[in-house]
Write a structure and sequence with these properties.
The complex is a heterodimer. A 3-stranded antiparallel beta sheet of chain A has the order 2-1-3, covered by helices on one side. Chain A is an alpha+beta fold. In chain A, strand 1 and strand 2 form a beta hairpin. Chain A has one domain: Roll (Ubiquitin-like (UB roll)). Chain B is mostly helical. Chain B folds into 2 domains: 239 residues, Ferritin (Up-down Bundle); 38 residues. In chain B, 67% of the residues lie in helices and 1% in strands. Chain B is built from 13 helices and 2 strands. In chain B, helix 6 runs parallel beside helix 8. Chain B is globular, with a radius of gyration of 22 Å. Classes of the chains: A alpha+beta, B mainly alpha. At the A-B interface, strand 2 and helix 1 of A face helix 4, helix 5, helix 7 and helix 13 of B.
């Protein structure tokens, strides 16, 4: 980091209500855990948007490469039997 | 087999309505256009804190002061969302700030006008934020994912800004003759600059055609300006404000208002740096950026001290 650093980049995840998944809200800059948490709170929860916050340095995120999409997601393309609508139910069957 | 790294494939994705993400292929000019537009947008949020910040200590009531503080804090937050969106395109925050200070990156022209009295705080919220909202609502559907997501978040927060401004104007118009005159004076000074916020007419807009083709812009300058005009004139009339334009007419057939000619000479003069506050805005930003350098240094030193401790205990 240079002397006039803008710090490291962090990603912020917010849980809107207890029981809900943590959803990516955006990024912030911070130089340590405590500053990251404070900046995330000030930047992304000014109106009660969250009950819980996760922050993590962006450099630790491993992202898929869009060029590999075809290969990466191909295995799911020919497995329609993984969906409930694939199955034929007998006429009149209920609650299933 | 198509080439995923071709402009043709990129355009096909845009035409299908797909969003482009940071790691996806994009033409170099798409990236450049976005960096220019998003950083200008971010700079506007941050520079826009200045005319209002000027009135925090002079707000007429505790309620007004709390509201103004919250609004200005929002603007700072919006700047941060947008700087982060620009950073996903491979430009650093340090560069973005440098470009602003060196005049290579612009901010909205409107903030080169002064906020002279309390009525201006009303006019800024109602007209300036109102115009910004029209633009931002449209940009929620912009093709670049991180920009679009920042816009969705900003739009959610921004409507309070416009309503608090309109409330101030409505209150003053119910007040004394002097207060009414102040509100009208603010309206007279902010109306035209607010219309200029949408940029030159479509026929004179140098960046529009690519931006529309790439769906960075979803509506043209003139379309957006017309939306703002149609919304705002009835709001002005409702509280007894006169729009400072003798040529305004409602076209009964189309339901749209037509207005007089915008003074584009003034627009280009202010953009070129000759507005009332250009120099003041930039000097203020540079001064506080430089005076804050010790805080950034201290934070880095603090981090390094703790890193050392962690290493020693391992």
């Amino acid at each position: 980091m240079s002397l006039d650093s803008q710090f490291d980049l962090w990603e912020v995840f917010i849980q809107s209500k207890s029981g809900q998944p943590y959803v990516h809200a955006g990024s912030i800059h911070a130089c340590d855990n405590k500053m990251a948490m404070q900046n995330a709170r000030d930047t992304y929860t000014r109106r009660g948007e969250g009950t819980s916050i996760w922050v993590m340095p962006s450099k630790y995120i491993v992202a898929s490469n869009p060029d590999d999409n075809e290969m990466l997601f191909d295995p799911a393309n020919d497995k329609v039997y993984r969906h409930p609508t694939f199955y034929v139910m007998p006429e009149g069957a209920k609650n299933i | 087999m198509y080439n995923e790294h071709s402009d043709a494939h990129f355009q096909m994705r845009i035409d299908k309505g797909e969003h482009i993400e940071a790691k996806d292929y994009m033409p170099e000019n798409y990236r450049k256009h976005l960096i220019r537009q998003i950083s200008q947008h971010a700079n506007s949020e941050v520079i826009g804190m200045q005319p209002e910040g000027n009135w925090i200590t002079r707000a007429p009531s505790l309620r007004a002061k709390q509201i103004l503080l919250a609004k200005i804090q929002d603007e700072g937050g919006h700047g941060l969302y947008l700087y982060c969106a620009a950073e996903t395109l491979g430009v650093s925050r340090v560069e973005l700030i440098e470009n602003l200070h060196e005049g290579k990156a612009k901010y909205s022209n409107i903030f080169n006008y002064p906020a002279l009295n309390w009525a201006d705080i009303g006019a800024i919220g109602w007209l300036v934020d109102g115009a910004a909202i029209v633009n931002q609502v449209s940009l929620q559907r912009t093709s670049y994912g991180p920009y679009s997501r920042a816009m969705v978040r900003i739009c959610k927060e921004e409507s309070f800004h416009q309503r608090q401004g309109y409330e101030i104007m409505a209150k003053m118009m119910k007040g004394t003759k002097d207060q009414q005159a102040m509100a009208q004076d603010a309206m007279n000074r902010w109306w035209w600059p607010a219309l200029m916020m949408f940029g030159p007419h479509d026929t004179d807009s140098p960046h529009s055609s690519d931006a529309v083709k790439w769906k960075i812009k979803r509506e043209t300058n003139d379309e957006l300006r017309q939306k703002f005009i149609d919304k705002t004139i009835p709001q002005a009339e409702l509280i007894g404000l006169k729009v400072p334009d003798g040529k305004i007419k409602l076209n009964e057939k189309t339901g749209h208002y037509t207005i007089g000619e915008i003074n584009w000479e003034e627009f280009y003069r202010v953009i070129a740096g000759h507005g009332p506050c250009n120099k003041q805005r930039m000097e203020h930003h540079i001064k506080f950026h430089e005076e804050g350098a010790w805080v950034r240094k201290a934070a880095v030193a603090h981090k390094q001290k703790h890193l050392k401790k962690e290493l020693q205990t391992v």
